[in-house]
Design goal:
Elements lengths: L1 H5 L10 H133 L6 H25 L1
Helix pairs in contact: 2-3
Length: about 180
């Protein structure tokens, strides 16, 4: 090196040949180490990463397809549930209408029964009142007739006939009056 330093100054643009040769040998060694040791490891890691990314993309795509399938099933189930709810609402409305009609008919039937029972009760009360009135009027008529005739009409058979004739004549007069109205 001293020898090189003693010679003329070299141009900074032209490199020294021994340095170039040493640099090329060092570069070759480094390149060889990188190519044989480090580059396969890097390539292996890059390949694994590429496969992982591609596998992840495939998994993501299959998950997306599965999610779309599940979404379609959910939408179909939701549409079916809505349809079922509408059907149940319609059925409930129909049942409600039928129940209302049934209750109206039952109410009408009960009303008719109550009216019929009321009429029967009125008729029974009228008959009881007529019988009681007939008895009272008969007794009064017998007493009055006995006083008019001057003799006692205590004979029961005679009393009954007299009462019946008297009441029949009253009823005939009342029915004729109603007919003329």
């Amino acid at each position: 090196m001293l020898h090189l330093a003693a010679e003329e100054p070299q141009s900074p643009l032209l490199p020294v040949w021994p340095e170039i040769l040493i640099g090329l040998i060092a570069f070759g060694i480094v390149f060889f180490v990188f190519a044989k040791k480090l580059l396969p490891t890097i390539n292996t890691v890059l390949e694994e990463r590429r496969e992982a990314i591609e596998g992840g993309m495939e998994k993501a795509e299959s998950a997306k397809i599965e999610a779309e399938s599940v979404l379609e099933q959910y939408k179909a189930q939701l549409a079916e549930a809505r349809h079922e709810a509408a059907r149940l609402r319609q059925e409930a409305t129909e049942q409600g209408t039928a129940i209302i009609q049934e209750m109206k008919a039952e109410g009408q039937r009960q009303r008719e029964e109550i009216i019929a029972a009321g009429h029967a009760q009125i008729e029974a009360d009228r008959k009881a009142a007529a019988a009681a009135l007939r008895q009272d009027v008969g007794k009064l008529a017998t007493d009055l007739a006995g006083k008019l005739v001057g003799e006692s009409l205590e004979d029961h058979a005679r009393q009954s006939r007299t009462i019946d004739r008297f009441l029949d004549s009253i009823e005939d007069g009342a029915s004729k009056a109603e007919a003329t109205r």
